[in-house]
Amino acid sequence: MHLKTLKPIRMSPGKTSLKRRHLARDGQWSNQRGLSTIEVIAALLLFSVALLPIVQVQLNAQRGAVIVSEIEATTQLERQALNFLESVNFAQQPEGQFSFGDGQIRWQAVPIREDAELIRNLDRISLFRVQVEMLVGDRVVSTRVLHAVGWRPAFAQ
Question: Which of the residues 2, 74, 95, 134 has the least number of beta carbons within 10 Å of its own beta carbon?
Fold first, then answer.
């Protein structure tokens, strides 16, 4: 068996070729088109390694979307709770609960400052510290402490 020298494949200008010359089993030189299995495996490996950061970014974006959705739901519940609590007279109803939608609020009011008389002794007011819990199902999603005024009519003492 003797080795032939490799001759460059003549091509027209601007064209490339995937032809490879190799020594076949029978000792003859042959031309082959395409890629070897090792080259395909190496290309797939490089592609998968390059794809990993993209997958991580996608997973982080999905987690972030879930968190944002939960925060929006909690914020909406808090707004509804605060709107409702504006109408509550804590002197007459120091604790209670109210349900709306899929949420629920519970509150407990404790007087901070005792009754103060208003002009002409018409009403008596007190300042309350109100502990408010916002729940979705059985899970407490938010807890707030606020100060609010409660009143009692002077004739209801």
Answer: 2
Q: Evaluate whether 77 touches 142 at the Cβ level (below 8 Å).
A: yes
- Coil vs helix vs strand at 108: strand
CA angle at 69 for the pair 63 and 70, rounded to the nearest 5°: 95
The residues, ordered by sequence, that sit 6+ positions from 23 with a Cβ below 8 Å of its Cβ are 3, 29
pLDDT in tens, 7-60: 555 555 655 555 555 566 666 666 666 678 898 899 999 999 999 999 999 999
β-sheet bridge partners, residue 103 = 100, 136
